Amino acid sequence: MNIITVPYNSDFHYIRPDISLNRDSNDYFCPDDITEIAVVPFIYIRMERAGKAISAKFANRYCSQIGYGVSLSAKSLIVENCPVSFQTANSLDNSTYISQLFQPEQYPAEDVLKGLEYMEQNIAGFQFDDENPWKALLASDAGKIMQFFYEKIEKITRYTSVRTGDFIAMELHTPVIMPSEMAIKFGEICFSIK
What we know:
Blueprint: E1 2-6, E2 14-17, E3 37-47, E4 63-74, H1 83-89, E5 96-98, H2 109-122, H3 133-139, H4 142-156, E6 167-171, E7 176-177, E8 183-186, E9 189-192
Parallel strand pairs: 1-6
Antiparallel strand pairs: 1-2, 3-4, 3-6, 3-7, 4-5, 8-9
């Protein structure tokens, strides 16, 4: 199982491994040599069928549930002109926190928006204002969010096959450096960075 991640405002994607999942929302213990941890919220879907070159028109046959989460990356490990360092920085054990999956009609958009407001109030540099294209989409009905995912599935599966159980995550903001010893609350997700 992989977490195929689309960075904020990007047409590209990268893959976080399943070892990065922290399903129990345990606190994150930062390795000693990492000096900067960045946080980014996302929403995700779970693929229920494997596929390649999936048309947006038929993507609803491949996924039906949606959730949200937070991922951490080690900004201090990224070395300019070294693409491999980006993958290392985004593959840390237990650095991806996810909510339970919801049917689209039960998706708690209000909890997600409140979580984003919490981050905006507590993390310097995190602004989830009207300039963010996700703000209006998250406040709309879940059908529009799912349609957005279907379009991304079409783009992703041109180049990458998906398997049953893979997650496709859409980042809602650019990664922002976290203050040390801060608690993150995002809907049902709650943890601290130690």
